[in-house]
Amino acid sequence: MVVAAPLQGHLLPLVPLAAACRDAGHDVVLAGGNFPPDLLGLRTVDIGGRFSLPRSAMRAALRHPRVARAEMKGTAGHGFVGELFGRANLSLVEPLMRLAVGERPDLIVFESLSEAGAIVGGKLSIPSVLQENTLWPADDLFEAVTTSSPLRGQRIPRPALTITVIPPSVREGSPVGAVPMRPVPYSGGGEIPDWLRAPGDRPRVLVSRSTIEGPNDGNPGPAVIAAAAEVDAEFVLVRPASAARGLPPNVRTVGRVPLNELLPYAAAFVHHSGAGSILGGLAAGVPQLATPGAGDRRHNAELLARRGAGLAVEAKAITAADLTRLLTDESLRAAAQQVAAEIAAMPAPESVVAELGRLARA
User: Fold this and answer.
1) What element of type H or E holds 55?
2) Per DSSP, what are the bridge partners of residue 251?
3) E strands, 36-135, where?
4) Are 187 and 239 in contact (CB under 8 A)?
5) CATH 3.40.50.2000 occupies which residues in the chain?
């Protein structure tokens, strides 16, 4: 059983390993919600009926207003996210327990912010595995959530194994006893229009935004549109926030597309600093411009910039000069390609399946 909070950015990084387990002959079920169009044929069960991130955020903010203000700037560290997802996970425990009692899984794999998987595993004496899916170390987030005030008093056993996906040269600190695994980008499907399947006349820049709208969500779209006419490139806005009118000639829009299939052919990638977007861009060796924002997005953008593989620029401050540098600074491209080679050398999800099988049989 693979468990994720009912948010696409949390679930999608788990899909490649889940599919590898299924392809190796294991029976796999994804427990989550808000599922994208394509999950590689994996079986899914929605456990998110009572899950509301905005409601949990509001309650956590009322209890911790100072930390909530820092969270909006992306400077709260793990403090607010622990309280937020400690509360949010409470709504997942009951439906996940019902599912687990019916399925009787031999192993539960859960992501960094779905500790309901560990709680249910503990109650049913099922071993659990923590799969990292952010640029914050998984063990740090596990500690933040399980020690939060909403989960105080819960018996939450530590995972039998932690899988780490952050490339070593990007990571801050070294994980102890974790199993490394290549972060395989997966975007959840979508139809690619014919014009996007062929190279354009100019360098192509993909511009994406978060699947979650909210304050300080780091959407780079408006600033890119304003600056695009001054840049010698083709800009493709993926899932723009609103119907775009009066676009410059070198800006086009598209609906949901599998970014993981398009990134290897892009000249650059501009996005909201989600962990999945950054890891996807790094895996493709593409220079990125990431916009700092709420939650972990400032941390993510600054981590990328410190590695030299991209730029961290506030969404409203993006200029034509920033976009031109993104396309012409060879040091950014060289660093991105170095990390891509590092990721390619990490163990594939298929290589981790045997270890999971041993835990399931223990």
Assistant:
1) helix 53-63
2) 235
3) 43-46, 108-111, 128-131
4) no
5) 2-183+346-361, 194-344
Q: Find the largest Cα–Cα distance for the chain.
A: 61
User: Residues 236, 193: contact at Cβ < 8 Å?
Assistant: no
Q: If you write DSSP's letter for every residue of 6-19 in order, what string do you get?
A: SSHHHHGGGHHHHH
119 neighbors 156 (Cβ within 8 angstroms)? yes
Backbone angles phi and psi of 115, in degrees to 5: -65, -5
**Per-residue pLDDT tens digits for 171-191:** 876 667 899 999 999 999 899
**CB of 22 within 8 A of CB of 133?**
no
> Rounded CA gap, 38 and 54, in Å?
26
- Contact between 158 and 122 (Cβ < 8 Å): no
Q: What is the mean pLDDT of residues 156-177?
A: 88
CATH number of 194-344: 3.40.50.2000
- Superfamily designation of domain 2-183+346-361: Glycogen Phosphorylase B; (3.40.50.2000)
Computed over its alpha carbons, how large is the radius of gyration of the chain? 20
Q: What tokens were used for 321? A: 């000069």
- Rounded distance between C-alpha atoms, residue 169 and residue 259, angstroms: 24
Question: Which parts of 183-250 are beta strand (E)?
Answer: 204-207, 234-238
What DSSP string runs through 83-151?
HHHHHHHHHHHHHHHHHHHHH--S-EEEETT-THHHHHHHHHT--EEEEP-SSS-HHHHHHHHHTSGGG
pTM over 0.85: yes
Residue closest to 162 by CA, chosen among 144, 176, 178: 178
Q: 61, 295 in Cβ contact below 8 A? A: no
